[in-house]
């Protein structure tokens, strides 16, 4: 492979990768300072744990759109992702999860690897829907078990203040499911109790959750005071750069997601988001009343945005690749080292994407 500044877990190496069966066999080269040369950057492929759609297709539209979504995000450097559902009636969720379960078991096509599912709702507070359709309801173990039988659900967004949710968080977390707090009107105390019960992250931090105030710290306060992990949308529309910096100082393993919709990678116009019709314009996606409804963000732009607000390139990469992998407990993705899947992105000196590789295959 061509020589590049390769970001490894121990620092930058000027060299190239050797591959075997889709994995990194070894990295040949010498430690370097990339500022001392004009070679491109090679980073771990981006891992996006919150993807509703892309390329004009929405996850909730079913199997026919999954390939389009995976290919679209791979074009922008996402090498693996979690397909993220919307709040919907049980029959619709059952259908989509069944199709996602089958899709995740198939050999990868020419797009990003679908690692599993992020179930965003229906176990959220109906008073904090954001752009979620109004099908929220209390989580019942029997229903969750049925969904888990259909698809590899890795993450569930849940409102901790809803009756019965704390014991469910405890039960599911013991089974290895990641429970994230989001779309919630819960108090600071609700958030702390959920973390103590086994919740592990916060869904699109700051958005669709009770805010931080000095006498009512809210769910945001619980995250900033106690969280090890939280996801955040760095499109610079959902969260002010100053608030991003607060989160960076407070949450050690803050990781970034796109919360992307069918509008990602597409021109301005109308698109589906679950049962909603949303409009892409002025760089965002909104409901008719102006509410932000997911994003048009891609992970390569997320990287550039993080660097723009002051993060070193290596740290920005870590928050788009290593930390999401660590959060899911995946050791063979999110870092470039011998034995890892050869998931890479190559960027020029202006951080424009010039190459993507998924499991050793150049796209």
CATH superfamily: Metal-dependent hydrolases
**Distance, first to last CA:** 14 Å
What is the CATH topology?
TIM Barrel
CATH class: Alpha Beta
State the CATH architecture.
Alpha-Beta Barrel
Order of helices and strands: EEEEEEEHEHEHEHEHEHEHEEEEHHHEEE
**Class computed from helices, strands and strand pairing:** alpha/beta
Question: How would you describe the oligomerization state of the chains in this entry?
Answer: single chain
In DSSP terms (H or I, runs of 4 or more residues), the helix count works out at 10
Bin the helical content. 25-40%
Strand content: 25-35%
Q: Flag low-confidence runs.
A: none
Strand order of the largest sheet: 3-2-1-4-18-19-20
Radius of gyration equals: 20 Å
Overall tally of structural domains: 1
Shape: globular
- Largest sheet features: 7 strands, mixed
Return the average pLDDT rounded to an integer: 97
Beta strands, count: 20
Family: Belongs to the metallo-dependent hydrolases superfamily. NagA family.
Domain Amidohydrolase-related: 41-361
InterPro entries: Amidohydro-rel, GlcNAc_6-P_deAcase, Metal-dep_hydrolase_composite, Metal_Hydrolase
Keywords: Carbohydrate metabolism, Hydrolase, Metal-binding
């Amino acid at each position: 492979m061509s020589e590049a500044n390769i970001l490894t877990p121990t620092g930058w190496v000027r060299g190239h990768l050797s591959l075997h069966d889709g994995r990194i066999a070894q990295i040949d080269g010498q430690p370097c300072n990339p500022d001392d040369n004009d070679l491109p950057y090679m980073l771990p492929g981006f891992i996006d744990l919150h993807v509703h759609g892309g390329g004009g297709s929405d996850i909730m539209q079913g199997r026919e759109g999954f390939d389009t979504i995976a290919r679209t995000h791979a074009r922008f450097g996402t090498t693996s992702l979690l397909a993220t559902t919307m709040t919907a009636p049980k029959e619709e969720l059952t259908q989509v999860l069944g199709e996602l379960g089958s899709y995740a078991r198939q050999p990868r096509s020419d797009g990003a690897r679908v690692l599993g599912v992020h179930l965003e709702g229906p176990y959220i507070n109906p008073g904090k829907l954001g752009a979620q359709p109004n099908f929220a309801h209390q989580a019942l173990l029997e229903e969750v078990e049925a969904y888990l039988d259909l698809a590899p659900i890795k993450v569930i967004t849940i409102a901790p203040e809803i009756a019965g949710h704390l014991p469910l968080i405890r039960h599911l977390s013991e089974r290895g499911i990641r429970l994230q707090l989001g779309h919630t009107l819960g108090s600071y105390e609700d958030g702390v109790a959920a973390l103590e019960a086994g919740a592990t992250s916060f869904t699109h931090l700051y958005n669709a959750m009770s805010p931080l105030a000095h006498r009512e710290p809210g769910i945001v306060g619980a995250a900033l005071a106690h969280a090890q992990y939280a996801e955040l949308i760095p499109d610079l529309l959902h969260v002010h750069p100053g608030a991003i910096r607060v989160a960076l100082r407070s949450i050690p393993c803050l990781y970034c997601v796109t919360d992307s919709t069918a509008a990602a990678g597409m021109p301005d116009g109308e698109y589906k988001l679950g049962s909603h019709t949303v409009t892409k314009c002025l760089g965002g996606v909104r409901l008719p009343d102006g509410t932000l409804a997911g994003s048009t963000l891609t992970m390569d732009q997320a990287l550039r945005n993080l660097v723009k607000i002051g993060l070193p390139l290596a740290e920005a990469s870590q928050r788009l690749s290593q930390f999401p992998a660590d959060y899911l407990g995946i050791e063979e993705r999110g870092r470039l080292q011998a034995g890892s899947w050869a998931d890479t992105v190559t960027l020029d000196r202006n951080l424009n994407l010039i190459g993507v590789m998924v499991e050793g295959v150049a796209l």
